[in-house]
Amino acid sequence: MESVKVAIVIPAYNEAKTIKNVIDELCDELIGYSFTVIVVNDCSTDDTAKKATEAGAVVINLKSNQGYSGAINAGMQYATNEKQFSYVITMDADGQHHPQSVKEVFDIVNSTGTALVIGERPKYARFGEMLYGYAFSFLLGVKDPLCGLKAYSVEAFKQVGFFESYDSIGSELVIRLLQQGCTFERLRVKIRDRGDKPRFGRGIKVELRLFKSLINSVVHILKKSQPKKRSN
């Protein structure tokens, strides 16, 4: 089948146990689709880069730890500079995103040409994520802005030029694109259990970070929603 050319960007930090299987599953599921897996190795101390390379991915090795959003930004910038991709799909390296859901995202961009696809998990992992969902649903019509499985058109990304400028937990680009009037689709995604501890962590510190990030995001949304003052 003919399909748009897609870069699947996977940020990875110490994911040697899962990354090869994630890539292998994608390759099995997406037979006939036009894609390149780009793993952004965020200064892992294990064999993440080696396992990803063996599985056939393009590996970007960051010189310093950039965190989740910094790694995605590096991957998206790479995909944009390559000038062969029409879309970037982002997903996690831990194996929780089912490859069937990635295929469904792929099918949406193939059939609709929408600028943005936002995955929706069946349940929120943390209380702070639930608050994020309620706020974004009310303000922007998006139920799960923190789901890591999304698709962005390269042209839409170029309009913004970066993934994140503050700790938005990966939601700032979505905010900016929606405020620019980009078309978007939502997709209910399949989430599998993770075998080890989540990289993002749990507990009160994580909840406070989510709450602080949500406040910053809401302020950003409301500021952009205000009409500009006319000069005399």
From TrEMBL:
Record's keyword annotation contains Lipid metabolism: no
InterPro entries: Glyco_trans_2-like, Glycosyltransferase_2, Nucleotide-diphossugar_trans
Gene Ontology MF annotations: transferase activity
Pfam families on file: Glycos_transf_2
Domain Glycosyltransferase 2-like, first and last residues per copy: 8-124
UniProt keyword list: Transferase
Keyword presence, Amino-acid biosynthesis: no
This protein's name: Glycosyltransferase family 2 protein
Gene source species: Vibrio ziniensis
